[in-house]
Amino acid sequence: MNRFKSAKGKELIYQSYDRLLNSLDMEYDELDIPTSYGITHLITSGSPLNPSLLLLHGTADNSAMMWVYNLKPLAERFHVIAIDAIGGSGRSEPYAQYYRTFQQEYWLDEVLKAMRIERTYVAGVSYGAQLAQHFAIMRPEKVEKIVCMAGAISGSQLEVMSKMMKAFLPEALFPTRAGCEKLLRKLSGPYYTTFSNNTQLMEHWYYLLKYFNNRSMMKHKITIFTDEQLSGIREKALFLIGDHDMLSYYPKSLERLKKHQMTYKIVRGGGHAVNHELPEVVNKEMIDYLLKS
Question: Per residue in 233-278, pLDDT tens?
């Protein structure tokens, strides 16, 4: 399966990816880690002497886009490792094995082993929040705490899909620059201009909507966990939900967080791009929770 709809589209995405990284006023490294499922691209920053923090982006996103407002402040307190998902729109390159036998926890096992990390903090946005839950449940011995942004506890595959379709359609089907702006306003709260006023960020997102093949990330499954499994992360998870987020702020979603006695905070004015819209609020919440003894 081709990850991109054209060679020109791939080139535009990669060029704008690099421009986003180059716009950061910070030091960082880029690493390519071989795994069973392909080459996994990482953006790392911060002292290796600090606690490690894995950052996981959403479906069809990538690390350059997702963490443009978060990398620098987080790298002051953590050894940050932002992962481009295998099959996603970033610089990770899947092997054929990815499309045949991909297992999310085994992939992250290999990334941690290559980085010589035995135990880590994990944070994710949207699908990345689901993956953070998945890894913390499947590998409790490897995860200290998790922060789940714009992603609560999934009730069913049908619920997830219906919410996604309502949020992204029809704008994502036939992307235009005007449609990107409209979609952003639909997904976000009143602070959407922190995203829309960033010309490079908007350009990159337009290229992703236009040229990335979303089917390439279909191997990243949303897992519906049992009550017993979810109880295992109750003491190590923080959920940050924007009150304008149509994908995670609705009655059933909030009821599940309460039912499972999860720690959660409602970010007033935040939408599905909460870490872009209100980065100072989100960064502080993440640092305070993760480093609280």
Answer: 999 999 999 999 999 999 999 999 999 999 999 999 999 999 999 9
Q: Which residue type is seen at 78?
A: F
pLDDT tens track for 141-151: 999 999 999 99
CATH architecture entry for 24-155+216-291: 3-Layer(aba) Sandwich (3.40)
Amino acid at 188: S
Q: What is the pTM of this model?
A: 0.97
